[in-house]
Amino acid sequence: MKVLVVGSGGREHALVWKLAQSPLVEKVYCAPGNDGMKEAQLVNIKADDLNALAEFAQKEAIDLTVVGPEVPLTMGIVDLFQEKGLKIFGPSKAAAEIEGSKAFAKDLMAKYNIPTAAYGVFTESDKAIQFAKKIGVPCVVKADGLAAGKGVLICEKMEDAENAIKDILVDNKFGSAGSRVVVEEFLEGQEVSVLAFADGEHIVPMVSAQDHKRIFDNDKGLNTGGMGAYSPAPIYTDDVRAVVEKEVLAKTLEAMKKEGRDFSGVLYAGLMLTKDGPKVLEFNARFGDPETQAVLPRLESDLAEIMLAVCDKKLDQMEIKWSDNPCVCVVLASGGYPETSEKGKVITGLEKAADNALVFHAATKLVDGAYQTNGGRVLGISTQDETIVRAITKAYKAVSEISFENMQYRTDIGKKAIL
Ligand code: AMP
Ligand code: GLY
User: Fold this and answer.
1) What is the CATH number of the domain that holds 128?
2) Ligand 2 neighbourhood includes 291 CB (under 6 angstroms)
3) Is 0.90 surpassed by the pTM of this model?
4) Residue 308 host element (H or E)
5) Residue range 352-384, pLDDT digits in tens
6) How many domains does the chain have?
7) How far apart (Å, rounded) are the C-alpha atoms in residues 86 and 27?
8) What is the pLDDT confidence band of residue 169, given thresholds at 50, 70 and 90?
9) Residues 350 and 308 reside in one and the same domain
10) Residues of the domain holding 194
């Protein structure tokens, strides 16, 4: 079978790496991919060039396409491929709206009684500000549409909330993604990411994970795409899991079906474990980055087989096995990230690090036979061991082998998992 992975980051490298292990898979392509993906043949087509991707898949007789990022999904890549009779893993445009519009996701949760923070959706700043005053601070102001993780503003003071609402609705700071705002109650607790395979009819959760969104240790500094992850999250106990599976995952799948938006692919629930129980912060319509780099190494089953079962609505017939051994992924980022990112810095130590770790490339480039940095998040170093402490030690040992000018990384990935 020939497989095409769409996207170019660390998540996509993890997908390529896992799919390449499948006995069903002869060849993996990645569009556009990055130079570190040794397991794949790179295809020079951008992830949002849907027509060119479909043309390539037809010409090369690709048997299965797997989509990493949200943008092509919300643009309708799955609908386009299916119209052309091409097999593709991911949600339709209508189903991907669960990530593409926070207002849609919140209204869905309200309608079907799925636990989430109290909220309001507004197009007029006066009304949004009135609502923020009613719920009080801290509160959270969110641009409705996709904003590459930057559209969520936690407001400690009412003045911050007013400014955030005006930035989004009046000054159009997020363009059309900000034609509506969601204003919501601030939730306290620990965050957990639960990704689940779904085929429209059945939903099967993966093992839990925790992301580290802030740039600096102890969750300080600006939000990033994610500076590291670990799996499992010990706070996601069997009791919490039972609630999430029933009240969040099963209900959401059913709700999407009732709305005529059957969800197929990966449904990612970002949860806050509050004292009143788990509540949904957001849904994503895809694998998380860097959660994937901490979750997929634990998957013992064949990912290609699972994805085919999803496409054929036979997920209930699959037995999906996971390793008990925890996994940690530490992200290495460029100087200046997340505000800017340096490029073209020579990376050393990759081979030595790979002796005892999985080295997932997120933004690297081969220049004259040597790898250089090529973006904000450069690498993800994943390690697995019998205990989380051993996995963490192993990860940082591998990290210590790698260097490039102004490399940044957090030194506390996985610390919250040590009880
Ligand atoms: P989202 O993209 O909606 O998940 O928001 C990004 C991050 O903002 C989340 O991972 C949380 O850390 C934080 N966040 C979002 N909504 C809330 C909320 N209602 N209460 C507290 N923190 C939140
Ligand atoms: N790790 C957060 C995300 O993938 O959206």
Assistant:
1) 3.30.1490.20
2) yes
3) yes
4) helix 303-311
5) 999 999 999 999 999 999 999 999 999 999 999
6) 4
7) 17
8) confident
9) no
10) 190-317
